[in-house]
Amino acid sequence: MKHSVLNIQEKFSTFDSLWSPKIIAEMNDYQFKLATVQGEFVWHSHTDTDEVFFVIEGALDIEFRDEKITLNSGKMCVIPKGVEHKPYAEKECKIMLVEPRGVVNAGDNDGELTAEEEWV
Q1: Which of 1, 5, 113, 120 could bridge to 22 as Cys pair (CB 3.0-4.6 Å)?
Q2: How would DSSP label each residue in the chain?
Q3: In which domain, by residue range, is 82 found?
Q4: Boundaries of each Cupin type-2 domain copy (predicted)?
Q5: Residue 25 domain-assigned?
């Protein structure tokens, strides 16, 4: 078996779109996705799964209906299924998402920021 090593910074250099997660790996039924984000996303939830946000570079705010948290580089948060949230990044921020295969980035809020599944 040949083991592969992924260079996350190289993967980030292959795309420049915002709020459009790109799949870089799978483990069992889970996907690891990279996204560059800036500005405001939409309120949404994922009714069937939890979602992991891991900040690689920059700072990401995540608003909930009752609070707001800030994740800086090296920090992560697990958002339980069904919890409404709205990510926001004042400046460009690079994140990794971990979620089951097939999860749509905008969850239950299908609209212009809904991304197509894409590997890089």
Answers
A1: 120
A2: -------HHHHHTT---BS--EEEEEETTEEEEEEEEEEE---B--TT--EEEEEEESEEEEE-SS-EEEEETT-EEEEPTT--BEEEEEEEEEEEEEEETT--TTTT--STTPPPP-B-
A3: 8-100
A4: 39-97
A5: yes
